[in-house]
Amino acid sequence: MPVICSELIIAAPPQLCFDAARSIDLHMESTSRTGERAIAGVMSGWIELGESVTWEAVHFGIKQRLTAKITEMNKPHYFVDEMVSGAFKRFRHEHEFIPVGQNQTRMLDTFDYTSPLGILGKIADWLFLEAYMARFLLERNLYLKQVAERQFKQTEEEA
Hints:
Residues 48-125 form the Coenzyme Q-binding protein COQ10 START domain. By secondary structure, the protein is α+β, with helices and mostly antiparallel strands. The protein contains three helices and seven strands, in the order βααββββββα.
């Protein structure tokens, strides 16, 4: 079962980064190349503890649906979403936001998953799936970094 970890420093306060990461609208923007869209549950705005969202997207040329639920939250430092149903056997996605200096945040992202289909899933992980998921998550996180930094810069200029 692969565990994908990434870390980014974002020039914005933790609350702004936290809100960006749980924004349904920003999620759809950041994953537009796969056509990812919310089709059930929370479909816009910020997702909260105990709430779920069903995503529809095209991965590997196949339209897929996945439902995730927010199972833990400590605003503005941490939240976890876990798969309720979808293509994986299971996943747990942890998002952590640690203040590091004045108006900077270390964003830690940990995606722990198990592919379906036993040994075939493990082979898929090794051949392509783990690398695909790492790229997918990094692209999304870089997009969130860009948006949070732009928003923070705008608020600083307006002040």
